[in-house]
Design goal:
By secondary structure, this protein is mostly helical. Helix content is 48%, strand content 9%. It has seven helices and three strands; from the N terminus they run αβαβααααβα. α1 runs parallel beside α2 and α6 packs across α7.
């Protein structure tokens, strides 16, 4: 599993980097079984193209989009409460800044890239996973992905790896 710090947060760049890393590892004789591409919808123009590239990628079912709409902070908010309130841009305020404002009700000192955030939220991880699953069910019924996140799917995968190696 690789991390894409240098490729930026644009979804198309993340998918491009994931495919490059897959090829490099395959050529080295140690290909990845799964490649998780984690990105936000936010205001990225390439979001739909990135999802399409993942859907068309080969080998099939290797690349998996772990999306958050409108942004990753929605996943963090689900650690504290279940909400399906849609987040839309407003004059002078992005959808993500609205999520962050809601998140700051619970984490007043929150800042992007904050160190040790995972350890602060570990006790609420199961709540977040449960809330994220409920949100996806509601999104299927409402036919609206705003808001939603699939981060819990990656968390489940990682937790299952830990169980398999224990």
């Amino acid at each position: 599993m690789g991390v894409c710090g240098a490729c930026g947060s644009d979804p198309k760049s993340i998918v491009r980097h994931a495919k490059k890393r897959y090829r490099e590892e395959k050529e080295a004789g140690d290909r990845f079984d799964k490649v998780y591409c984690v990105f936000d919808r936010d205001t990225h123009a390439g979001y739909a193209e990135a999802l399409d590239a993942i859907a068309r990628a080969t080998p099939k079912d290797t690349y998996i989009a772990i999306t958050s709409i409108p942004c990753f902070e929605y996943w963090l908010l689900l650690h504290f409460r279940y909400t399906t309130k849609p987040y839309e841009p407003a004059p002078g305020q992005s959808a993500c800044s609205q999520v962050i404002a809601d998140l700051k009700q619970y984490l007043p000192d929150y800042a992007k890239g904050q160190v040790a955030l995972f350890s602060r939220l570990i006790d609420q991880l199961n709540d977040a996973k449960h809330n994220a699953q409920r949100v996806l069910q509601a999104a299927g019924i409402d036919r609206s992905a705003n808001p939603s996140t699939r981060v819990h799917e990656l968390i489940d995968f990682l937790q299952n790896i830990k169980k398999e190696t224990a």
